[in-house]
Fold each of these.
Amino acid sequence: MVEAQEDFTQERETKIIKGNVAAAYAAKSARVQVISAYPITPQTTVVEKLSEFADNGEMPGTQYIKVESEHSVMASIIGASTAGTRTFTATSGQGLFYMYEMVHWAAGARLPIVTTIASRGPAPPWNIWADFTDIISCRDTGWMISFASSHQEIYDDILMSYKISEDHEILLPKFVAYGGFTLSHTSKPVTIEDQDAVDDFLPPLPDERGWPHIFLDPERPMMHGNLIMPSGFYNEFRLKIHYTHTIAKQKIKEVTTEFERKFGRSYGNGLIEEYKMEDAEVAILNYGELAMQMEEAVDDLRNEGYKVGCVKLRYFRPFPVEDIIQIANKVKVLGVADRATAFGSPTGGPVSSEVKAALYGSGASTKILPIVMGLGGREVSLEQQKNQLKVLNQLNETGELPKDMIEGTFWDGLLEVD
Amino acid sequence: MTDNGKIEITFHGRGGQTAITASQLLAQLAYEESFKDAIAIPIIGAERRGAPIQAFTKLSRNKTIKTYDSVLDPDYMLIFDRSLLDIPRVLETIKSGVTLLINTKNPIDTCEFPENIKIFIVDATGICIKLGFMHSSGPILNIPMLGAFGQLTGFYNLDTMKKVIYSEYGEAKGKKNLEVAIEAYNSVKEVEFE
């Protein structure tokens, strides 16, 4: 057992680490005070790395709680956050589903909890690989939901998350999702920032008085989790969460700008990131790591003379309606690629349905092509993404749809079966 | 095969032969040697000791790497276990222009390979046994394979290996690692084509 150091220390350094390890470093840089953990693939190495930090004495004072299920993970995190501490955990797929009851509770209680999701396909059949259907299922919980598309973005977005969530005008929990294995287990250079710089960027840790609206303090007794009659404030509480999501967009933009000023890394306007959209005729919107890979596909096709662009969706909740309308108006055809399912949907995957809803009544005449692909971690190669752009280009020029259209959605990369 | 200063490497090993760790260490070594970017991509399933496993490393001298997909057209292939050359999906990627590094103590029959490739061999298993560089179920092949790879490509030298190994494993454990790396670095041989 190493002797505990007196304080969190970290000098700015760039290390080649897995996406999961980047998440653990971010939690450490944010000086989280309580971590509750239960292992599940592909998230496990996030909480393993944090347990190593805690055991090595690198996170002095941080409570690391091992519990018996994901439901208990979120229950204990809710307790810790209610007591006025900065909290962190991570989960994936089935673990998130098991946690689900408490997920709603955290948002309803307006607790600024940050949780990372190494997304995986829901079972059955058992699947542990990248698929965002798990996090999408939390759409209506009240949590803010963002996607990271690179290893560095995992680290950076977790830091930004605390600043957004803990803002006294927001006070909502936040998920940061990234693809299982595609980001969680691949290794890339990640810059871990100087502890003083992170301290300076983030709000101070809550003092013993806790959060402004909720606390556990015998001197200031407060009732928690009481029953509210239908005639009570239930509707108005829900409306307040809804309203907070609408004002969170501005907060996200501000924090992203401040992050860029301080650390020099930019993430578009915070809600979306455009790539070569200026003169694009067709474009495609992705989220997660495939949004990053799509930039390479755009570069390659531009070299071949195609006027194509792409957009990275960073936030699913709050959903950037205004930005979506703006980008749709820049192009004639917009593909929306979902690595997630919305069974029976007439409007494609979950994000393309949101995009279509956002555009309804906006006056935009842009043609939307919903694309579903890469479910359960099926590889989406650079070549496949280049082909998607060509499909959009063809749709624009000739009106011809790809052959794998099923009820209005392009299911790309299906196996050749009868 | 790719241009733009981009180099792609595939690793073929069996579970327990430490090929996945090798793919990560290679990314570190290249990044340390002023490559602009590097990514290590393991293919993870339900592998057990002995099952064929695969990993990729992509290196770039001047551009940010934005892709996360598999390497199907490698510049280099590191074969940790010669028996893996019988697997069709491994054989498929042995194309003109590729360089192979094979862990073997026996000679290679070049007739079995296409022309216009290069083959290097190193007895990584033998080196591990000789120097006692073993884990619970066999030789730790990542370090000797990377030692040999550094010598045949010139991407990094032994000083860089020392730096990365010591920072990763500490000096006490690192010394043995380095000894193994040096032995492989000095004993890798190119196979002459008939």
Amino acid sequence: MISFGGPRLDEPAATRRHRPDYILIVYVLILMALGAITIFAVGPQHANLLNNAIGSNYSNDYFFIKQITSLGLSLVAFVVAAIIPYKLFLRYSGTLLVIGLAACLLLFLAQLGHLGIAQCTLGACRWFNLGPLGSLQPAEILKFGLLVYLAAFLGAKMQKDNVSDVKQTLLPVAWVTGLGLLFLAVIQKDLGTAISMTLIVLVMLVVSGVRWRILGIVLGAGLLLGLVFIVSEPHRLQRVETYLQGDKASTSSASNYQSQNAKIALGTGWWLGLGVGNSIQATGYLPEAINDSVFAIMGEMFGFVGVSLIIVLFVALLMRILRIMDHLVDQRLKLLAAGVFGWFGAHVILNIAAMIGVIPLTGITLPLLSFGGTSMLFITAGIGLVFQLSGYTTYSPSVKEATNEDSHSRRGIGRTRYASRRGA
Amino acid sequence: MKLELLKGSRSRVLAGCLLAVAALFVVRLFYIQIIQHDYYQQLADSEQIKRLTIPAQRGMIYALNGNQPVPLVMNETVYTLFADPATVKDVQGIINTVESVAGGNARSNLDKLLTTPNSRYQILATKLTTAQAEAIKKKGLAGIGFQQESQRVYPEGSLAAQTLGFVDADGNGEYGIEQGMDSALKGKDGMLQSVTDIASVPLTIGSRNVKKPAQNGENVVLTIDRNIQSYVEDALSRQLQKIGAPDGSVIVMNPQNGQVMAMANYPSYDPSTFNTVTDASLFNNNVISLPYEPGSDIKTFTMATGVDTGVVNAQSTYNNTGVINVDGIDIHNAPGDTQFGNITLQTAMNWSLNTGYVTVAERLGGAGQDINLKARQTMYDYFYNRFRLGQLTGIQLAGELPGIIIPPSDPDGNAVRYSNMAFGQGLDVTMLQVASGFSSLVNGGKYYKPSIVAGSVDDYGNYHAAKPTTPTTYIKSSTADQIREMTHVARSSVFPGIDKSGYYMGGKTGTSQAIVNGKYSDTDTIATYLGYGGSQAETKYVIMVRVSGPKFGGSGAAAAMPVFTDISNWLVRYLNIPPQE
């Protein structure tokens, strides 16, 4: 039923490559720089905190240097994803999915075998421990693989116009997604990552044109499934209870602690914040100050004005991806862009929403800003892929002319080059 | 194609969702960061701002060496070494280092302490010196830390132990000057109100930090002269060991200013190891804390009362029959009385005859045969109000007790009691009261409130003497001079040749029976000697000696006086008093 070899389809007439959308890079770099500044500012406090708490011996600039290294690697991933022809991604989409699933399976086996390579906390193993190379989260590989696979798969179904066909399209998608969820939510007990993966699939389904009625059913099923997962784990239930207590929850109970301290960090920031390096919550009050909670720390340092600007940056970047998506002709490329949009968007929304107490804590990083390797590496690679695709956009005069499939897949009519649209 | 037409609308749905969520976020941020700012600021303050105490350094205690302060009690910084077993990496390394550096200060079961599960604090060694702490610190071992503490050190050992007192584990002064001037010695702890990190380490972030520096405690200089104190302690213990008496005290005062030059008790203890003392009575300064019946020393006060009111003088006579009847009760002289017939009060002083001083008390009431109310009121006025017996002197030491003198208005303050009081029974006083009152009898009639504080040493080490106390004149100077001479005669006629020649000394013995099971006991006596010395022109010192204890039957002349003589003869030289021909 599922063809892991990757659906082979006739390639639509290729759009000629043009200048890609460098604005994407500008947004990425600005966000990365803001994250690096934040980690530079609170890294020494974080090192001090860990040194006192677990007896480690981190130097003051340890986290900053590591973040710069991660940023460098992520930019390499960006370039690699931007250079490797998208056709290769599509051709080996099945292989990528298999690699993702295999990585998760390998981690599961390592966990069963109690191998040191499986890095576990509280009974959940989510990372490969690669020793001096750091750690690798296979869930990110799986997300990337699933994204590319579904782009190819759904793209093919769109061309056959049977994307809303339950048997031909939706059931296979459900199977693959279900398999991914089995690894992420059940085995790795990582509900946050599972939700973000589900959102990627959902966004791709939306863009693929699946009928709204079916999407409604899918969404309902997803929520039901999420509820089951929450109820099945006491610590998740606790987080939800904390969430339901709202803003008045006290910091004295352990389960409220992080959520409430995130809000304290934001609340003390006021209009303009305490200034770079003046975060007090990062000295130990707010857990995960440089990882999951970095947004709250930025709120403390940069204030309402600062974090609002960061939200504007994120929105601008996401809108840019949507805009590129709109102007891609090849359905598979459109879906690739949609997947990256869903991925990036899911992370941003889940993280910030948890920090401001709109949803319970999920343990998801804030892309490009949070300290951390794997997640940033793959998300940046995703944007790199979109950057590549932005070189294949077509700006036809109007979608109303879309009766002739070929008319918008070529340049020469009107302003076809992206560059000429600048400032429009 | 249908799909193409959908293109724009679907992405517009996504864009709409995104913008809606972003708008929600910004509104929510505005609510948290702006509207609720004060609420969260308040939460932050209660969590982040801590009040830390800046400990004030306890004042040092000095004695005088001549006119220069020398330290008796100093502070020393010691360190407690602790471990956080959760972050300890090199257990064996720590054990080796601590055992080799800290030695006896280390706990014996380091191995167990360092591997205690679920523990984040274990004390490995206490009272480490700065050098030891530095040596351990230099090894850079993970998971250990130091707590700084201050402890008292005593460069002069147990010198003046009861006068000093000690500082307990909570930093409170106990006994002596440590308790008596506790708040001045403590100083005022400062306060640092600061934003701190989660481990309460102050941060320099923000403008909410308030600092109030600590006021270090006062460095107190005692009036105690370390050389006199040292000699007095030796002299006392020499005598007590020689005669096998269990308990004794000595006070040396300067009668010209009321300052205590030495104050010794035997047996004593070492304040640096106060926590090993099992008998807490060793902490008591019996010079001020042990009211007793003073016995014949008091005859000097009775005589002064008679002289000052003009009813008697040294040459006044009375008929000594060896016994005198007061309200139907016979009062006898001590055994060995040979001076019968018409004798002077000087003779009665020399031989310490009780009848003579009962007679003085009688004459205070006029020419009657009874110690009437007027006599008793006069005696009470002099004893209590003028010589300040039976009440606290207000010396700056802790643990002073007032004793008691029963006033004539009390049903117990009858003629019999006052006849006894005339020769030192039926009243409880302390040595300090007697020595202070006696000082006013040998310095020309000026009563100085006794003091043990000579001044202070400031932060730069400069000595500032306290303002001299102004005396109160309660008796005529002629009265005082007569008593001074009477006691000189009493001493020199009965014990000729024991004083260094060229000096002017005087004194009065006292032997009172202790009350055992409600009766005066002849085997348990309190032997005292109250005397003074100096030149004829000026008294330089008053010394009072007490020797007592259970199963001790010594007399003032035999047990206590030798200590006086020993100290006195040494003191005239130490004080550089020029002898006169």
Amino acid sequence: MPSNERTKQPKILILATLAGGYAGADSTGQVHADYPANTYILPVMCPAMFPPEFFVRAFERGIDGIIIMYSGTDSPYKVEADGTADLVNRTYALMKTRCIDIRRLRLAAICTVCVKPFLKEVNQMADLLKGIGFVKDEIAAPASALA
Amino acid sequence: MENLQVDALVVGGGIAGMQAALDLADQGFKVVLVEREPSIGGKMITLSKVFPTLDCCSCITTPKMSSVAHHPNIQLLTYCELQSVTEAAEGFRVGVMQKPRYVDASKCTGCRNCEYECPITVPSPFDRGLGAYRAIRVPFSTAVPQAAVLDMENCILCGKCEKICAANAVDFTQQPETFDIHAATLIMASGFELTPLNAKKEYGGGALRNVIDPLMMERFLAPTGPYGRVLRPGDGKEPTSIAYVQCAGSRDTTLGVEYCSRVCCMYAIKQAMLISGALPLAEITIYYMDIRTFGKGYEQFYQNAQAMGVEFVRGKVASIREDAEQNPVVKVELTEESRTVERTHDLVVLSLGMLPATGSNEILGLPLGTDKFIAVPAPNASPCATAQPGVFVAGTAMGPMDIVDSIVTASAAAAAASAYIREHQKEAVYA
Amino acid sequence: MPENSVPENNPASAGEEIRVGVYTCHCGGNISHVVQCEQVAKLLGKLPDVVVTRTDPSFCSDTGQAIIEQDIKELGINRVVIGACAPSLHEQTFRGAVTRAGLNPYLYQHVGIREQDSWVHSSDHEGATEKAVRLMAAGVAKARLLTPLAPIRLSAEKQALVIGGGVAGLRSALDIARQGIRVTLVEKSPFLGGRMGQLESVFPLDEDPRQLLHDLIQELAAHPGITVLTQAEVTAVFGYVGNFNVQVTQHARGINDDIAEALMAACTQETTDEFNYGLTRRKVIYRPYPGCYPATPAVDWEHYNGEPIHVNGESIVLKDELQTYELTAGAVVLATGFNPYEPHQGEYGYSEIPQVITLPQLIRHLALLKDGDELTWNSSPVRDIALIHCVGSRELDGVHEPQADGQVNNYCSRVCCTASLHMAVELRQRFPKLNLYELYQDIRTYGRGHEEIYRHAQSSMVRFLRYHGDERPEVIAAPDGDTHPVLVRVKDYLTYGEEMEVPVDLVALAVGMMPRQVDDLVNMFKVARGADRFLLEAHPKLRPVEMAVRGIVLAGTAQGPMNLQESLSAASAAAAKVAALLGQGWVELPPFVAHVNLTKCNGAGACVKACREDGAITLQTFIEDGHEVQRAVVTPANCTGCGACVGACPNRAIDVQAWTLAQYEAMVDAIAMEYPAFVEIYR
């Protein structure tokens, strides 16, 4: 049964492509590497299917950090890379208008055997969220974010 | 049982036989798979995790077992022995005996009530004798088919199982049944047997309680195993020092086994890694002459084990004795240091090798190699063809190999068999 | 075109009662040792529409599947959520179970709670359990919005393409054709046979490799179902499993049979002979060896300088002409083979000391000697020779010099030990007085009949020296006036770590295998490579010769080091997969393709611009209220389901079936569930 502290931890959503990040997360599991449990991985065909509004909505609902894990620019999926980078830039612009710290959204190239990069990304985001806190506090108090 | 007419008969329901049957069936051929045990799954289903991915073994095997059971083109015959094979106009006529299960498999629901009722406990070969099951039982939890089998040798005919069975499936009057199968082609996937634990007397296997075989260790490590943890069979103590003796049964002319069994290095390293996970304080030593981690991803696996602290000692183990506390004492010639030492461990695993399975091979009378496995006369032209046209071989029936290689040779045997069927049948099997 | 061919993908149709079954698998302890599965099951039971929630030691087993099937039949479960291992392992297994019970297979949602939960949070059981609850709650949220779908059935060409004319490609092509499937084999070089033709004797039976090749090629050439294109390459690929449209570009042979021999004789321009690994030179009109296939000599277009060749008083200038073919193939076999590892300059003295060569070069050198010749190198007699194992194999990070891509080859190349020992045995037989040294780490004669070769070498006066992987031997030029040109220094652990200095006349490096450069094919077919740079199978045991991209299979050393017998087996296995795939004449694809809600589409065309696949979305004219309007229409067979159109649409009128935006939003809400709401379901 989870304790109070536990369920009050920030939540990290990871949108991981089946060919890239999702397989990389599975590889990380196969070597039984340990990382924080407040990470929720959803498989996606390609991150470019999400409009910027989708991410902002997720932050507003209480997701504190989002990592998009795709195969990256070195991969055979070059189009995926172009579209995704563009999407992230458009999302950053929208996040700024809502006073959401843009560091809460990260794009990471994770291939099927990228165990170490996977762990690095997840741990970095977890550390960041420890520092900058919950997204709800940020959205609730845009003035303090500006101060 | 009516006589059957099929495109292919596969002998053996281990991983190689299952894969060969599935590949033929997926191409539309009618296949019958004959297994002498009450369930398919072979040796693989008894393993804990598999190298080098450390996937749960059961997770790879059970879906294949399930696919075999559900495939519309496969007829599964378990608990059946080959009796005779003769050449016939259409290919081969194979005499098969259905051994009595004393349970009507078509009625049995696998509820296991008979098992809970049975008063007789016998050591379970599935658990290498480490655990026990009843005289009537479903062979193991993920068995296919899920049907009980009664072993008459240990049964006291108390009748409790018959009374409890709601499906009226228990039948003490069953007799062996024989029937013929006509098949255009045969695939031998008769597998291997582990070198007997007591094959090399100097190592004390069978006599010393804390010297075990690697399949016993698999059962200790398997989540489905009898104890769910690693312990010494001698006294149940948790071992803190475990040693592996490599080539215990392979590359040894005194045993008449000159060949390398190919899998022992990798399974020893794999078990060492799994033990490290289960018993983080345990010290693990592997005594070896050559480490043979040659497969895809295997060398990296070996390097990982070294990094994890598994101790690799190059040395020839001369003998193993027991001290007063039942601890095995290994006498080893350290070939890199020119001295012989004695080292005491809590538990020793003999990395035993592979010997050909007996039974079906003899009935076919196929020529064997000097290693006693089924001969492949032209390995570099037809890698799965035996000396008998129309008979192909898959997996460890043609010599030691690991699971990946067994699966690949099984698919290759299926390709060779299907080409043979097409070229020797007047009419196409499918348009 | 077929706007009616796919069902509407709206949330569950009105009136249908959603009945969700939730199944949390122990995975034989793999999950339940960390995640409190019973708790997870209990809590999920409190979510709306969840009718039944169960756990089992192993839902993938026959008994486990039977439980789910029974619930569908007896409890009327119409949405199934399973928390288990990675979907890559068992999603198909459970789809099968659901289908057997009469439920549409796409009303099932798989949640991975092993690789992405229990295996990575073993130090945090509580966190792992909460994660399982939230992930599976997300699975339930998505399942409630799933709608029945039908797979897309495509006609499949009974035609396969094999890329690579080495022994693996040849074997695959023949085995596929024997199943009644037509095959086109494309080979980059002018001749078939690949690396095998460069060998002189193959272990363990010492057969003549070119005779074996000849027999195989004769059978292939006689087969009516096989077309061979040499000097040809795949230059473009479109399409998908069942219907790959492949463009092949082929060079001209350039010479006619009737004057080919005369032209070859008259040709004076020479270049390095790669058949002999650069030991000799050959003409630019050539044939690698007598008995090669095709027998007609070829022009080496890359090196031919365009000068006229004088034959029978005529001056002939040869002209290359590229020809392009369009092929359709239902499946593709990648049999692109290997290159021997090329040591970098100075590695064991290679390309600095003239007496250091590779084992493949030594094989060719011996082939060029006449019977009875003494062994010489650069006209000097060879009295002592050292063979060094593991060159370009079993390398260690931080110890060995990385290659251009920054990586070291940390894999074993499988064949080099037996090949070296086989060479030692041959050398002993041909040159009884030669002193032979084998420098090795571990002898890996694992194959059938290979240990015998090791024993043979051991009883053939071969001196073995064993080094440690982090203390590799050193090869240096001997000082002037020494008895031998080269010194090999090694710390030998067969003599308890003694520092040895072995004077030799020749060093042969047993080089490992590297994959051929196939960047173009990797990009065109969008296939994956492993950390070792070889092509990567989908799973080593579940799908060992198939790639993750459907319809593309692997044969031979393109996948990793193998010996000849292993390559042949892999090639036949690949053929079995192709035969199973194409045998029926159609292929089924999952229905995860874009679908337009015509009532929301306003014909702006943003989706068409965003789409990355040719012809997957087009604007078509419809009549609406007596007016012509433009609306987007999807061609499912061309759609890969990437969803680029979804993000682009301003009206949320387009979605990928079973991967809809609404489903993702529902999943996010379940994951983000507020603390009070979460406690609510815990109560």
